[in-house]
Task: structure prediction
Amino acid sequence: MEYLKDGKNYVVRLERGEDLNASLEDFMIKEDLSSAFFKGLGALEDVELGYYDLPQKTYLKRLFPEEAELLVAMGNLTFKEGQPYAHIHAVLSGKDFLAYGGHVFRAKVSVTAELFVECIDHQIERKMNDQVGLQLMNCRI
Result:
């Protein structure tokens, strides 16, 4: 990983073989980030995506082992049960030029991932929302 700090924000480049989720969570610790939002692009492989089935309150998951273009990644860096948590959604495209996307459970960088991270001053902790069955951002001060 390489990164450049610009005021409160960062430009981050992940390298081939790095784990997308774990790298962002490690970055939060290393830079002592309160919370942040990010967007990016690049190329990934061994991606596990999910679609949240609200009536069942569970994720439907699918593994995409082949290399894919990361057309867009968006997400936030918050805390879940006191630990850094990278919440990532992505749209990918393969050799067929068809797009697919969802919640990123895991992904490995196959070429690069170039991210722009916008930091905020407040630490956002996730809190269980029983109505939807997920730990959502708690935005109350």
User: Anything to note?
Assistant: The CA atoms of residues 36 and 119 lie 4 Å apart.
